[in-house]
Amino acid sequence: MNVVPIGPIHPILKEPLRIKLLVEGENVKGAEIDMGYVHRGIERIMEGKHYLKCIHLSERVCGICSYIHTQSFAECIENMCDIEVPEKAKYLRVITCELERIHSHLIAAAVYNLTIEHETLGIWMLNVRESIMDLLELITGNRVNMGFNVVGGVRLDLNKEILDKIHKKIDEFEEDVKNIIEVFETGPLIGMRSKHIGKIGYKEIMKTRAAGPVARASGIPESDWRIRHETYKALNFKPDWRNEGDNYARMMVRHDEVLTSVELIRRALEHYAESSGIVRNKAEIRATEGEWYNEAHRGEVYYKIAITDGGLIKRIIIRTPTVMNLEAYKYMIKDCPTIADAVATYTSIDPCVSCTERTIQLKDLNTGKLSDYKI
């Protein structure tokens, strides 16, 4: 058995990590993943700082899904300290979060298509994504790190001109993206490179605690934390899911979620129009601790925060979904006939290395020996 190293610097990797594929000829038999190239210690940096500073740091956990981290940070403290969020702010959060989910899924789809050498479809995905990025900039003032969420609500309200533009652009985007998804569904090259490749079943998903579209592509719709979120309940949200558990299913779940996000934005705009008042309440902080779960674009994101009376962060723990999804990857690659398929399967889980980089060590309870975490 031979080892084929991929990374830490490789054209197909968006971020640095090392994948060691164990192969016999072209057949992939297993893999090891080494991490630690971009660890930034954000949790440690937050300790002792005021929560007003830390909410901006949380936005730097991930560059693609930056918004959901500030929302999770804010909602965690709001839940801990019983801070009421205005109705308008709740629906503005849904609108912005779902716009970011669309842009994240389109990046994931574009990278996957480029990996399987369908460059035209990959570029189309990035092209339609630009209209979503324009909307994020229109609403928040920025395209990536938006600084929109605050504890107690959001920073800015929308006027009629912005609302009209959102409606118009969403309608145009939906028509364009439906055409692109149809190409993916019917393309013979895509089917050959995606169907029955990288399969993972229900039992393996439950064993690894995989999250997000990875879990929902293997028949676990309840993995979507939006079904537990009060605002999404008011919008009658229903998760998208499939049973096949292969690369094709994982990508199609993301495509389905893009269209679902469009519909959620429309419903949120209707509820927003029926709401009145302010978009931000005063935050009164008390010494306490608590935890919060949200459905980030790659899956479950978890925040646990301990805070003082003065609003200083005593301790914070952030868990992002890729750490679980990478564990599921070792089961997927056993169904990869070639090295190229193993690489495509890796991109199908939409990994985010920078937001996964945490200090993780395993302790042997018998010997007390510490070892670095390896998947």
From TrEMBL:
Protein name: Energy conserving hydrogenase A large subunit
Known cofactor(s): Ni(2+); Fe cation
GO molecular function: ferredoxin hydrogenase activity; NAD binding; nickel cation binding; oxidoreductase activity, acting on NAD(P)H; quinone binding
Sequence ranges assigned to domain NADH-quinone oxidoreductase subunit D in this UniProt record: 120-279, 284-358
NADP as UniProt keyword: no
Organism name: Methanococcus maripaludis (strain DSM 14266 / JCM 13030 / NBRC 101832 / S2 / LL)
Binding site for Mg(2+): E43, C62, I318
Binding site for Ni(2+): C65, C352
Keyword Cytoplasm: no
Keyword list, A-Z: Iron, Magnesium, Metal-binding, Nickel, Oxidoreductase
InterPro entries assigned to the protein according to its UniProt record, in alphabetical order: ComplexI_49kDa-like, NADH_Q_OxRdtase_suD, Ni-dep_hyd_lsu, Ni-dep_hyd_lsu_Ni_BS, NiFe-Hase_large
EC code(s) of this entry: 1.6.5.3
Residues involved in Fe cation binding: C65, C355
Pfam families in alphabetical order: Complex1_49kDa, NiFeSe_Hases
